Amino acid sequence: MANCIRCGRQLPGFSFGKKICPWCRQHEAYQRGEVPEDAPQTVMPTPWVRRRESAISLTQIIFGMNAAVFLGMALSSSTVMDFPVRELIVWGANVGALTLSGEWWRLLTNVFVHGGIIHIAFNMWCLWNLGQLCESLYGRWTYAAVYLTCGLGASLASAAWHPFVPSVGASGAIFGLAGALITALKLGEFSVPRSALSGTLRSLGAFVVYNLIFGFVLPGVDNTAHIGGLITGLIVGALIALIAPQQGQTPRRVAVFLVMILTLAGGAIATAHHYGAPLRLGRVNYERSANVPERAPAQITAARDR
Prior knowledge:
Layout: H1 22-31, H2 58-77, H3 85-90, H4 96-99, H5 106-109, H6 117-138, H7 140-161, H8 171-187, H9 194-217, H10 223-243, H11 250-274, H12 296-299
């Protein structure tokens, strides 16, 4: 994400070739008399003004958590390019046959596990851009709830669609951030220039479309997780924009996330029932479990969701 050459503010994502931010363009148009006197003017802090909140953003914390897990995997397997399938499973990969049979924590742990250096590098680049924008819009705790909820939605979709293929990576949650931002900017009310909103929406739309196309074209990409995270994010973003658009409306936002969690829990129960898995919580020995076919180890093939 480049910076404006006039004020130093960050430009919207994928602003290739653009050097002046929408706010500076509007200000110049106002000075030339091209903007009506009663037009809403955006009030934004200058880039050099320090915020009172902690200098470490939640996006940086999530980034660090992913990096720490990757470092641990690299040290334990002596490689950084392509981790073995069993290594991914040990560190928390989402495998439907195990997840739906009791290891429900895999729906969340897999969001912080990546298959190799290229995998995590691309995901963290996307997280850095979309995460900063989402965090500034929603605030810390709502942003964290959106990220984790979308990660759960992506993991559940993946486990339901291909229960014997391990899925790892943060991009399901990242697609959820994109979906939440799209509906927030589309349905929310912001006193910002229309050009700024439309430019950001175009960038988000391009991110979603291009990566879904790549997911269908490239082998080993779990597009089911992408779509699951995107749909979850679209719903969460719409509910927040319509029910609790202000950061101070904490009870309403809590209610939104409770509804989403209950909905996902219902989906998980229905999926487990579909595959004949018992509703329980505990580690599964998939080589002996009656709920997982004996051929499961052979069916659990290497796959990446990004």
